[in-house]
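tool=predict chain=A
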Amino acid sequence: MDTPQVTAPPCAQPGSPGAQPDVTPTSGVLHVTVRHVSGFTVIGNHLAQHRGLSLVAIGLAAHIQSLPAGAKVGIKALTARFPESEARIAAALHELEATGYLHRSRVRLPDGRLVTRTVSYNRPGATATAPRPQPRHSEPPSVLAVLPTPAPPREAAAPPPAAVEVPPPPPAAPPAAPALLPPATPVHVPAPTAPRRQPAPLPHPHAPTEELRRAATALLADLRRHAPQLTLAEADIEALTPGVAVWLERDAHPDTIRHALTSDLPTPVKHPAKFVRSRITTLLPPPLPGTADLTPPPRRKVIVIPLQNCDTCDRAFRATEPGHCRDCRIDARQDLHTAAA
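tool=predict ok
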């Protein structure tokens, strides 16, 4: 009884071959995983860890995949839901379209209206299975049944006589599955384009001369020394010469014309001839006013009627000639009528 008995193996010391390694990372993220039983969406790692998408695009794709069918996913609706601006949300939608997670198209409805249809793909490039038709609550219960109901078990019957053979009943045909509705084919309708505005006609001088034509041609050919982007072809110089001649005809200095054509150039100048033509027509100065236009109009002469003193009552009144005032003339007329009566 005094001999010690070993009832359990000794614990393995750290570092011994039988010890379990510690799998807890010393840095980085630690996951506490709880299994979801409702209200969750499956997102693939190809989206959550996509190296070509921004965080806004990945979060937006996850949000769109969690929405039910028919939810509004336009830029206005997403801007009202999230704090990001319309520009960031639009850029994220373009990223998802470029990588295949989203597809937007214009579809014409049976009533003639055009709407934007958005299709979200949880795995771009994979073959999607046809969706099963959703039953409607207004249909009768017989239509809602998709799978055949098992027949009730038959009661065990007594075996028939040996002389009579009863053929087995034919197997019941399973009910036909409801036909799947074909997916709607999006109709791509081109967006209406605004009518193209015709350029303004190139002005022509009223009195074209050889000197005007030569000076305008030299000014156009010299533009490439001041702005290499405005190197014009010989045919373009011939076509634009009348417009520059109008500037010279209206007493515009060559330096003024050159500054108007070469200042504030866009980068790059794709069509130099069209750019110079637009500057010539839109910045054309008006003709200088003549001497008659600069002369102020003559002032009207004011005629002042002088004051006169009445010969009878010595009252002052305005008249061109001396005489009687109005009251004295009325009194004298009344006296004449009274004397005549």
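Confidence is low (pLDDT under 50) at residues 136-153, 160-164. Residues 226 and 259 are 9 Å apart (CA to CA).
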